[in-house]
Design goal:
- Helix content is 30%, strand content 27%.
- The two termini are 25 Å apart.
- The protein has five helices and seven strands.
- It has a seven-stranded mixed sheet with strand order 1-2-3-4-5-7-6, with helices on both faces.
- Strand 3 and strand 4 form a beta hairpin.
- The chain has one domain: 3-Layer(aba) Sandwich (Aminopeptidase).
- By secondary structure, the protein is of the alpha+beta class.
- The structure holds coenzyme A.
- Coenzyme A binds next to strand 4, helix 3, strand 5 and helix 4.
Length: 167
């Protein structure tokens, strides 16, 4: 497995990876509907790629297996989406993608990472906690994260939390 910057020509493959990744929620009673939920559009992916904030995990044949994309919010790199295709999950790709993003963030001079995620889904907040992220309460989360959580609540995502990691 190799992690490389995502190219514009990869973008059309990415919605299918996110849909495949979301199949992991089918076994979670109140989140099974996420398996058919909207995913990032090709245009949104192209935006992150243009910023140089999109990375792809590929196999030895350059077949895409998973991705992570982010946006810059002041001196914080905010993880927008992390997805590993269902058939490639549980092999360390998710951990490697976050590790790669963290290295690139340090190189670029970002001071912190942030994200929002499901608080109790085992491969969400507990997974990030093992990678050194800490849960942020309302006071610790800045306005961007609070707005993100309000938006996620408004679209019906239950039990979301904000997390951060100082670099
Ligand atoms: C989250 C996700 C990217 C993890 O990718 P992955 O390649 O399967 O992750 P890894 O193999 O690196 O495993 C990371 C950890 O999660 C755990 N994990 C992964 N899938 C799991 C599952 N279905 N149930 C319980 N734990 C799981 C692994 O045991 C591992 O634990 P460890 O930290 O003790 O080693 C992947 O499950 C996914 O795409 N999920 C759907 C989208 C999503 O939830 N994205 C993150 C939201 S912010």
């Amino acid at each position: 497995m190799i992690i490389r910057p995502t190219r514009p020509s990869d973008a059309t493959l990415l919605p299918a990876i996110e849909r495949s990744a979301a199949q992991s929620f089918t076994a979670t009673e109140n989140l099974a509907w996420l398996a058919g939920h909207d995913v990032l559009s090709v245009e949104q992916h192209l935006g992150f790629i243009a910023q140089g904030l999109h990375w792809l995990a590929v196999d030895e044949h350059d077949q895409a297996l998973g991705f992570v994309c982010a946006s810059a919010v002041d001196d914080t790199l905010h993880i927008e989406e992390l997805s590993v295709a269902r058939s490639s999950q549980g092999q360390g790709l998710g951990r490697a993608l976050v590790g790669h993003l963290e290295c690139r963030a340090r190189d670029a001079g970002f001071k912190a990472l942030s994200l929002t995620t499901f608080a109790t889904v085992p491969w969400n907040a507990p997974f990030y906690a093992r990678l050194g992220f800490q849960r942020l309460d309302d006071a610790q989360a800045g306005e961007f994260l609070r707005q993100q959580l309000r938006h996620e609540q408004a679209i019906g995502l239950p039990d979301r939390c904000a997390m951060g990691k100082t670099l």
